[in-house]
Design brief:
The chain has a single domain, classed as Rossmann fold (3-Layer(aba) Sandwich). Helix content is 49%, strand content 17%. Strands 2-1-3-4-5 form a 5-stranded parallel beta sheet, with helices on both faces. Helix 1 packs parallel to helix 5 and helix 5 crosses helix 6.
Length: 160
């Protein structure tokens, strides 16, 4: 099982690192690359055409500003693509969010929040868990831990 995390720019690395951290916590093989839909379109095309053959099962695409990376990859690859709009210098990332979420019919991109690297990683794990039962069990355990932590926080807050 492998997730390819593709960033439009090296400046997206803090968000990419959040995705990678989640994937590694679940034991999912991953790669982190910089491929620009605009500066290296032929590299993007080659990646999207060959990702499945090279073992990728889910693509996470992080981009800001015009944020066309997720749509370009989804337009070429048959693999699920999760788009992560990155906060840019313009409009606090709203421009990126709108670019990622407004895909034409037939080119689906699952979209998470602006800079939502953690949720992108978790969604990739959930997608993979359909095929890999061991991941499904790890994800169920994660949900239990998250609930327990929330209950503990609530109890601590109410004790004061």
């Amino acid at each position: 099982m492998k997730v390819s995390v593709i960033m439009g720019s090296a400046s997206d690395k803090p968000v990419g690192d959040k995705v990678i951290k989640v994937l590694e916590e679940f034991g999912v093989e991953n790669e982190l690359r910089v491929i620009s839909a605009h500066r290296t379109p032929y590299v993007a095309k080659e990646f999207a055409e060959n990702a499945e053959e090279k073992g990728t099962e889910v693509i996470v695409a992080i981009a800001g500003k015009a944020a066309h990376l997720a749509g370009v990859l989804a337009g070429i690859s048959p693999l699920p693509v999760i788009g992560v709009p990155a906060k840019s210098s313009t409009m606090d990332g709203l421009d990126s969010l709108l670019s990622v979420v407004q895909m034409p019919k037939g080119v689906p991109v699952a979209t998470v929040a602006i800079d939502g690297g953690e949720n992108a990683g978790l969604l990739a794990v959930q997608i993979l868990s359909v095929k890999y039962p061991e991941l499904r069990e790890k994800f169920k355990a994660y949900k239990v831990r998250m609930a327990e932590e929330t209950i503990k926080s609530d109890e601590e807050l109410n004790q004061k």
